Amino acid sequence: MKTRAAVLTKMGAPPPYAQSKPLEIVELDLAPPGPGEVLVRIKAAGLCHSDLSVINGDRPRPIPMALGHEAAGIVETCGAGVDDLKPGDHVVLVFVPSCGHCLPCAEGRPALCEPAAAANTAGTLLSGARRLSQAGQPIHHHMGCSAFAQHAVVSRRSLVKVDPEIALEDAALFGCAVMTGVGAVVNTAQVPAGSSVAVIGLGGVGLAAVLGAVAAGAASIVAVDLSDGKLELARALGATDIVNAGAADAVDRIKALTEGGVNFAFEFAGVIRAMELAYKITRRGGTTVTAGLPPPSQTMPLSIVNLVAEERTIKGSYIGTCVPLRDVPRYVALYRRGRLPVDRLKTGTLRLDEINEGFDRLREGKAVRQVIVF
């Protein structure tokens, strides 16, 4: 079948993207689902900084590649061996499929699935296949999803069935922003009620973490960003305090607000200065969690004496340390009860052919979560 998709043909194109157009909207050939795969009609897909980091070259990927990894849609056809989904089911796409057999999967850590990591790096589905092509030439898949398209063939292990009563443009955000942000709070850090928390970097993931900290019962939630608009949104979502990261006394202000530092500091900006700030504002015995993805060459100096003598913990968090089949339904249930108002993260919808302009807004910090609606 044919499908229209946004394909990245060149990394590192100069902004503004509305002019350089790194993403081309083209018609592709989409092969039927193979064994263990599913054809999904995409209904909504969110624009994420992880997509932007591929566009700008911070996270190199094989090209040409059909981008998009945060999405929701409706099952159209199931391949051989898929008997737990049927046409018409509503699903959220997950950008780390779980093979279920490698050691991390066996240990209950599907976010670290080894075959999934290899497939995502190679630009294939979990099976190693590519189902997209143009004029006979294969097109790489992005994170096993390639969701900036009318249709996608994905591994069954890249899908979580969700309640059809939730709007699909809201459901899409659970595939990345919610799992990563909320999961970092409740899974990676396991924040207990009454704790003090700081969230640095208030994009879709960071603001989802604010929602997660509220739901977890954190007593103090300090939101930190360079954008006053995002800071005010964080306050509206439940942050108890806001601090502009550009202030010369930002560290001192946060420590004053939290009696010496926070129990848990979360970094989602993906820049080293933000990570350094997160570490500085973490109190003795506290935990610094990062889900940011700076370019691989960037490193941070660290005082080992400080780490040891103050019994600090630094943790990485990928896809929120989630077990998607367990966590997505739980987070959706909280959303339906009003405990996770994920819909408030959206800052507009757009058409597929407006995608380059959308990434300009994301790059300029003028948007939190824009959603392409098909």
Written description of the protein model:
By secondary structure, the protein is of the alpha/beta class. It folds into two domains: 2-175 and 341-373, Alpha-Beta Complex (Quinone Oxidoreductase, Chain A, domain 1); 178-318, NAD(P)-binding Rossmann-like Domain (Rossmann fold, 3-Layer(aba) Sandwich). Helices cover 29% and strands 26% of the residues. It has helices at residues 17-20, 49-55, 103-106, 114-122, 168-171, 177-188, 204-216, 228-237, 250-257, 272-280, 304-309, 324-336, 355-363, and strands at residues 2-8, 23-30, 37-46, 65-66, 71-78, 90-93, 132-134, 137-141, 151-155, 159-161, 196-200, 220-225, 241-244, 262-267, 282-290, 313-316, 346-350, 369-373. Strands 3, 5, 6, 9, 10, 17 and 18 form a seven-stranded mixed β-sheet that branches. Strands 13-12-11-14-15-16 form a six-stranded parallel β-sheet, with helices on both faces. It has a five-stranded mixed beta barrel with strand order 1-2-7-8-4. It starts with a strand and ends with a strand. The model has no long low-confidence stretch (mean pLDDT 97).
CATH class assignment of the largest domain:
Alpha Beta
Distance between the termini: 17 Å
Number of domains: 2
Helices, by number, come to 13
Outline, from the CA principal axes?
A: globular
CATH superfamily of the largest domain: Medium-chain alcohol dehydrogenases, catalytic domain
The class by helix and strand makeup works out as alpha/beta
Instruction: Please mark out the parts with pLDDT under 50 across 5 or more consecutive residues, or reply none.
Output: none
The CATH architecture designation of the largest domain is Alpha-Beta Complex
Helix content: 25-40%
